[in-house]
Task: structure prediction
Amino acid sequence: MTKIKNQIFSSYLRNPSLYDEIYDNDGNVKEVYKKLFDLYGEHSIEDYASLNVKARSSFFNQGITFQVYSKKKSQEKIFPFDLFPRIIDPKEWDFIERGAIQRSKALNLFLWDIYHEKKIIKQGLIPMELISSSGNYLHQMMGVDPPGDIYNHISGIDIIKHNDGNYYVLEDNIRCPSGVSYVICNRTALKRALFGVFNHYQTHTVTDYAENLLELLETTKPHGVDIPVSVVITPGMYNSAYYEHSYLAKTMGVELVEGRDLFVENDFVYMKTIRGPQKVDIIYRRIDDLFIDPLEFKPDSTLGVPGLFAAYKKGNVTIANAPGTGVADDKAVYTYLPEIIRYYLDEEPILNNVHTYHCNRPDELKYVLDNIQRLVIKPVDEAGGYGISIGNRLTKKEIEKVKKQVKSDPRRYVAQPIMSLSVHPTYIAENESFEQRHVDLRVFTVLGKDKEFVLKGGLTRVALKKGNLIVNSSQGGGSKDTWVLKK
Amino acid sequence: MSLEYSIVYRAENHYDSWITDAHWQFLIIPEENDTQTHIKIDFKNSVHAINEHSVNGYGFNTIRVQPREKFKDISFEAKFSLVKKKVNPFDFADEFSREQAFKKVQELEFKVDFEPFLRTTHFTAIPSNHDKIFSFNESKSIFENLQDLNQWVFNHIYYTTNVTDVNTTLIEIISNRHGVCQDFAHLFCALAKQNGIPARYVSGYLHQGNGYFGDSQMHAWTEAYVPGIGWLGFDPTNNLIASDNHIKVSHGKDYNDCSPLKGVVYASGKNKTKHSVQVVAQQQQ
Result:
């Protein structure tokens, strides 16, 4: 451990075995962070303590909260915001951005293929098992051409920096990924707290997400529609991401609706308004596939709109992301992403994948069971960090339990080497000091017809518990404002 | 030669409390195909709601009803008349030899193309302790094997009403050995698929003039895909090859894809439902 000389970083312990985002190996502050480091040094640690309290209450007062689900009860929490921003230089960002677009485009072509000719499977490049055993593969989507040929309009790609200094993708989230509203709220909060620091940098704006999202969604409007009417559909105020749903609707300038606000007549979708029915052309849905239409999918769901899928199939409404997209948001599909990129785009993958072991392959299952202490075990179909086991953190008893689970349903699990997420100085309130904490980065992309957008500045999530590697908000993580510098 | 059929489908629902919000979707219109042609479709409901014609996720015609007024009782009546061509179910051209057909079903491209009808579903999963209850004999053709399977299922299950329902799975059917047409169809599909032959659940109407099994409800049978021939209908409830007595409505992976009536009714309290089906045939020249 090396001690750092700077007033507020006086107690910062730098563990040299971890990749620190602001210090190089010799303990020098990296070029892009120098100015920030000096400016932060002008304040005392007491200043940060009081700024931190203010920032927290501002989030709470704005209602920027989320729900945590557990077996016993659900709880409303604020997503802790960290005062020390992450900075990404233009060159590095350019690489991330190109990599993110490449993945989104490849996944879109993959989805088209597996809902049409399934060439990639017929050529033996990926096993049929991958889709036939997936609960998210919707046969109802076979042969359907989504408006604008887009399935995954909205993606959130989770990227980490390993201790080798390279970026790796952990997940491609294309089932209603959340978090983008926090990106914008974090920026607002940081500017409010430390504008004197922010204005020393030329940083890309993040407030243009909603306008770009709407513009790109509109490029995929149904055929024959002139000026489309869009809505955001939410499961309702008890959903963990309700704040985000309302935020997106508000900033896009469209209505936020629940299933009961819409109805279908003659295969067109209408919204009930005080001026009578209003035809709806584009639906940004934050409801899972199986809940969108009780007449087609789960009959007991009250969240969706009866008849919606028939309207979609007729091409009368755009649903983003398209029903059935979830089949590609599967940790088993993830492992084939390099092949998928090469096959459809004829390019080499820009961003690395983490090596993944498939437990449905007997030899790999054996390796996983023998080396469980060195691996992260993930269920292929869970989101939000639920169900993840980190091998070296498990007790003997827990290891046996995980082994049993994996053996009973190998298709459900993949394993990856334990990646060492990079660390970043983070203000820790209970110790009143800046300390190293693990971070990742969620990058938000939007695909439209012949057009794409990447939000310049993703969501840097930080694991607030010391040594914790899981950064998800539902698992007690916080987040940081992320600055992408202009060239 | 052909037959003219008149089919009447009725459903009556009674609720103890007033219903103000309800949606129904009927999957009961006979499919139009090589052997079936519509003459007339007539659909009525008792609450003067609009009947919307639409198509479900698998491409079959549906009727959707959404009442605009509150009610406690609602009834539906559909009348279909159609012409059914008489065909000899054994009259097909077989392009492939027995060996070629068995080879074909092993090919990756075939497995990918027929993936929906080869995958195991909730209702077509064979319990692991009954893994090999019916294995195909490769010295016979696939068609002959399917005929044997049809007979095997027919013999294995005793046709008994009111012992199973729409939620019964094969675990129960195989060990208790009783059930209705839906259970026969699921067992047939499951075993055909287990032997690598694509199979699908078929929902429709059975003309019972000949004393076949199948109550006064909709009937269920199966179709299996034989390389070189195509989809062939098997009715394991009656140990028959589906013929001009079988009027097809829809097909799917299992009952879930074909349920004739789907309803979303926001109701408290009890409700009663009654369905009936009548099929009358007239010889045509």
Notes: The domain at 355-417 of chain A is CATH 3.30.1490.270 (Dna Ligase; domain 1). The radius of gyration of chain A is 23 Å.
